[in-house]
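Slide 14.
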Amino acid sequence: MNKAELVDEVQKQLGKGTSKAAAERATEAVLAAVKRGLRKDKEVSLVGFGTFALAVRPARRGFNPHTKQPMTIRAIKTVRFKAGSELRALA
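Slide 15: predicted structure.
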């Protein structure tokens, strides 16, 4: 599912009286709230759905696959997601 399909699904869930623009604004609002939550609290927990959390992947040694030369891969910040109980039940 891509973002356009997600907006369509939100529109269906909100009912026939909801415009596509309103559904897109609602979707954008939720995504923006998750981003703000990660910046502020470093974690966003949606009970039953899952938890988004900031993590730091430390620097490590690796190699260039073309030249086989060793190199250092720098540390990066990333977002991790841990599925909640209701989401795990789907699998």
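Speaker note: The chain has a mean pLDDT of 94.
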